[in-house]
Amino acid sequence: AGIEFGLDAPYAVEYYDRLSSTNDRARELAGDGADGVAVVADEQTGSRGRLDREWVAPSGGVWLSLVIRPDAPPARAPLFTLAAAVAIVDACREAGVNAHIKWPNDVLVGGLGDETDTDTDADSEGRGGRKVAGILTEMEGEADRVSWLIPGIGVNANVDSDLLPADATSLQEVLGEPIDRRRFAATLLERFAALAGTPDRMDRILPAWRERASTIGRRVRVDTSNGPVTGTAVDVEPPGALVIETNDGTRRVHAGDCEHLRD
Ligand code: BT5
Predict the structure, then answer these.
(1) Domain containing 224: what range?
(2) Which site from 17, 51, 107, 156 is most exposed, i.e. has the minimal number of CB atoms within 10 Å?
(3) Residue 48 Cα, ligand 1 centroid: separation in angstroms?
(4) Pocket flag, ligand 1, residue 157 (CB < 6 Å)
(5) CB neighbours (10 Å) of residue 251?
(6) In the chain, what percentage of residues exceed pLDDT 70?
(7) 128 has a pLDDT exceeding 80
């Protein structure tokens, strides 16, 4: 059984039991001029992570891609990914799971080593946390304006965690029972629209992201295209750069895989 049609959301929703990739369907819609459409699938057979990595998407997830046409320059696109991460965390928390964000786009559960930690095993390798959701944002733009933007959101909602990579978990596994995916998706879309729906509200995204992130204040290593940058993450700056204090001074990284190191 999938998420039913008729989601109460600030976007038109297309629902599929199975798709190759919701991002690919969203790209088709974008090519046809769509704006404000959410593509949702119960299962994906060819879904993608960043850098063409495979994303495992069995039945039971919230696999969702939005087609939007924001009035924004392409340089602001990373902000939409940050807004999606905030929206995922808020929907997880409403479902009763205390998720947090690892820069730039991973949503994790556990590994904080504090009393909110429901998953102490996750810290056994010092990395902290199991991945419960990820975001792949795709965009087409001209020099000064985004043509279309597709935040592709994958949440391991009611997924059997045996089907997931070892460092991943699902909301169902954390809670011991399935969540209401329809409500989850509605909350997620409402939160995303509230933060990223109009340009005048976008200055709320970074503060909201900072509040929900576990990366700030931690020792990190980010693998950038120019090699690894290691140090203490001190802030995130517009439109989403991570500021790292290293032994050789302050570095700003715009993309890369981030690992939380043991303090
Ligand atoms: C991401 O990539 O985290 C972005 C994932 C975006 C998936 C959504 S689902 C809806 C939409 N349609 C698509 O086709 N994609 C989007 P990245 O940071 O590159 O992480 C990928 C890595 O996470 C993989 O190499 C695995 O190690 C791990 N992984 C794969 N499937 C996972 C899962 N379901 N849960 C947690 N980790 C996973």
Answers:
(1) 219-260
(2) 51
(3) 6
(4) no
(5) 17
(6) 91
(7) no
Output the pTM of the full model: 0.93
E-only strand ranges, the chain: 12-19, 37-44, 62-67, 99-102, 106-109, 130-141, 146-155, 219-224, 227-237, 241-246, 249-253, 257-260
Residue 239 falls inside a structural domain: yes
Give residue 249 CA to ligand 1 midpoint distance, Å.
32
Q: State the closest ligand 1 atom to the C-alpha of 21, by its place in the atom list counted from 1.
A: 14
Instruction: Name which residue sits closest to atom 15 of ligand 1, judged by CA.
Output: 48
Interval 72-95: pLDDT, tens: 999 989 999 999 999 999 999 999
Contact in structure between 151 and 131 (CB atoms under 8 Å): no
CA of 46 to the centre of ligand 1 (A): 11
Residue 155 CA to ligand 1 center (angstroms) comes to 9
Check which CATH number belongs to the domain holding 241 and give it. Answer: 2.30.30.100
